[in-house]
């Protein structure tokens, strides 16, 4: 019983770290996609103006 106790107590922390890392990478991916989309729209607008 004492052997499983530390494992259970350390589990939520690991999950929290994993979620934090996932959300961080997801945010970076979404941010880069947004920038790419905005720049492509801007380029299209510039081409139409020309």
From TrEMBL:
<keyword id="KW-0472">Membrane</keyword>
<keyword id="KW-1133">Transmembrane helix</keyword>
<feature type="transmembrane region" description="Helical">
    <location>
        <begin position="21"/>
        <end position="43"/>
    </location>
</feature>
<keyword id="KW-0812">Transmembrane</keyword>
<protein>
    <submittedName>
        <fullName>Uncharacterized protein</fullName>
    </submittedName>
</protein>
């Amino acid at each position: 019983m004492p052997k499983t106790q530390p494992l259970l107590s350390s589990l939520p922390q690991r999950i929290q770290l994993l979620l934090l890392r996932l959300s961080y990478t997801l945010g970076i991916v979404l941010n880069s996609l947004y920038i790419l989309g905005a720049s492509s729209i801007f380029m299209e607008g510039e081409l139409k103006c020309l």
